[in-house]
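Pinned message: reference record for D-alanine--D-alanine ligase
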Amino acid sequence: MNTITPEEAKAFGKVGVLYGGRSAEREVSNMSGSGVLAALRSKGVDAHAFDPGQRSLAELAAEKFDRVFIALHGRYGEDGSLQGALELLGVPYTGSGVMASSVGMDKITTKIVWLNAGLPTPRYAVLHAQSDLAATAADLGLPLIVKPPHEGSTIGITKVSEADGFQAAYDKAAALDDAVLAEEFVTGREFTIAILGSGAAARALPVVEIVAPEGNYDYQNKYFTDDTQYFCPAVLPDALTAEMQRIAVEAYRALGCEGWGRVDVLLRERDQKPFLLEVNTSPGMTSHSLVPMAARAEGMSYEDLCVEILRSARLKLKG
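Predicted structure (tokens):
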């Protein structure tokens, strides 16, 4: 499936694989990018590494890439800033455009869009230095989740189970972001749904269930241990699987995402209702990553997945 001919590989031209970058997720991006680079080269693509964290936009322009595969995570790579530069340079790129990337990176704005579209997401509050934490805890209930809205890979996130731990959790998140997101804690199972394509053609891959040690799916358990268990396809009733895939695709479309992405979902234990958590517009492509896992469950190899994503590279702005 998704075989590539030597003619198509050549037609891609000179391809840049952008990874590394300046965000807190640089280490993960290095792993993702190394994998993508090797995969594309194995398919005969003329692929070259480029690290925007160590090289300038002038150097990027000088490389004269025909298209680029974005394997950057977090700020300066997944948040619309790089996408805008590529639009200005006229270099087609993978993934979502400027607006969708920016909105998807902001968990607060993402929630506003989803709620306006009638999609389910946990209740939340936006916190600043003058916020009344006790009132927020009373409104949302304990436990609750506190996180910086512009970071990924669970960086800066704390589960607050006791009121006296709220301030420390706020301070931890506020060190990374100007605003802090406090979110209702939903007790239940954790899932993620990878999506390929754009607009009406966007489709969900098989659902992945994540079972982390003591329910703690943190940075270490995501990328550097083998203690977390993954079940793909997730063991769910067919109707519930279809419903979760439907709302994930709707959530992706509501933000204007395209090319590929991943939507995280919680399934509330008491009534089996799914809630949208966040979207990743440039998901991980490491050996532990979930989009490749979902693709494999559908019979698509890692290498073919990379080619499929590369095929979708384009400029999004018309003019």
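Pinned by admin. Summary line: The chain has a mean pLDDT of 93.
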